[in-house]
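G.,

No rush on this.
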Amino acid sequence: MNFRDWTINPYHACDAPGPSACGVPYSCCKPTDNPLINSMCGYETISMRVLESYPLVYYRGCIDGVEEYLQHNLKIFGGVLISILLPQVLGIWLSLSYQIVLRQIIRTKQETKLREERKLLRTKTKEFVAVDESAV
């Protein structure tokens, strides 16, 4: 893959109409010392020989460059990814654990309240029965 891959793009193909024909986008151009930005720096570079276009544009394609950059810096990207994801996963785990504990506490309190209500109901039932028997 190289800068000539832009011929697949209908705007940069050599048979396309317009100023971008047979050229590459500005992002493929190498920086220059000139303070003025030349957005047409890639004009007709696709039709040039490689040695002629080499000082003007990056030879390798963007995908290859990004892929190589990622491979060379894989440990750094892995470390950054883990340092971002680990606290997130830990936070999710702690939240879920807290939710489980809260559900257990709520269930225990509900069961305790239910037992107390049943006990109170039994006591009142015994009192009612005792009052009812004494009335007979």
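When you get to it, here's the other one too:
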Amino acid sequence: RLITARKGVSAAHNPAIDPAAIILPKLWATNIPTPRESAPSPSTIIPKFWTGSPWIDESVYAIDCTKYDMRAKELPSELVKKVLNTYYETGVVLLKNTGLTDLTEMRRWAVLPTHSAMQYEGGANLRGEIAKNVFETGAPSSAWLHYHHEMAYINDSTKMLAFCCSGATKGKGEMFLSDSVAATDTVLQTDFGKKLREKGICYIRCLTDQQEGDTGSIYNHWQTSFNVSSAADVERIANSKGLEVHWGPNRYCKTKHYTSGFEYFPQLDRNILYSSIADHSSWFDTWPGVRDLPTMPSFEEATPAHRPLLITYGDDSEMTPNDLQTFSDVYDEHGFPIRWEQGDIAMVCNYRFAHGRPQYYLDEGEERTLGVVLGDMFSRVGQRNDKW
């Protein structure tokens, strides 16, 4: 018997798959309650996600859909106008009391602020297909997910993403959003933020060769991440995404990407913080198996015996523990929860908000099912020095 615990992921990387499809997660499921992980080490950077008071009150972005026919062939124009106006003004919309349980029906609403769903390639999370147009995330519920902007670590990113909840358990599995506009103002007042502005950031992401077999705690294989079978194709796709590729022993794929830690947002005509601790080895602090691996000592020395993610400044200098703590804190200070109920649809601007979640544990008979749609792609320009 299975108890399903589902978490949505980003759009598929397989060109043969309809990129506009709803994406569902891997089933992290057993016939017993989810086991609790041991306490993190004292040096672990523990995300708080918020101060205990929401940075933005739900009344600002939530819309009650009780009086609307959400399944109507023609979407109610009054509600469509509310959705688009709220999204433009605030960058987040949460549709409540929709009465919807089918993810395909929810998708009609989820894509309102966008024009198309993006093609996904060059990622690092597992994207295995578990059913037609259904893909797994590879992120267990026992791992917290630090705040992050989707697809910040390559040249092509997405302007928005939407979360569709078809199953929920009250009080469990909440998601958090953080106001990146406010986080930008906060981080630029710190020494860390000034260094990030000056130096930029380097993303280091490493991937194992599937043909070598699973010899330990594997995060992802480059065949899965890039959806290819040859090293030459990896280099072709990676280079098109702005990644440098280096090969270690046993075809261990090591990539680097140098970019700004900020992104210019045309609508507000200013730079926005667009990077986070989520791309550091801290991402794995509560990830079963990988949490037991040490941080790679350097890009050159990285092997499958190390955690496969690291961030440095753009001049390759290390971020100190204090820097990384500040990186986490500036998002936590401006966070607020999305407490899922069945039928909820959240549309989120990927510029203006970072998203993340704490660990959660489901007991027998409980469920958390999210589908995620990613919107229009854009080519990153990084920071503009005249837009601070």
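Residues 1-35, 126-138 have pLDDT under 50 and may be disordered. Residues 71 and 104 are 11 Å apart (CA to CA).

Enjoy the weekend,
O.
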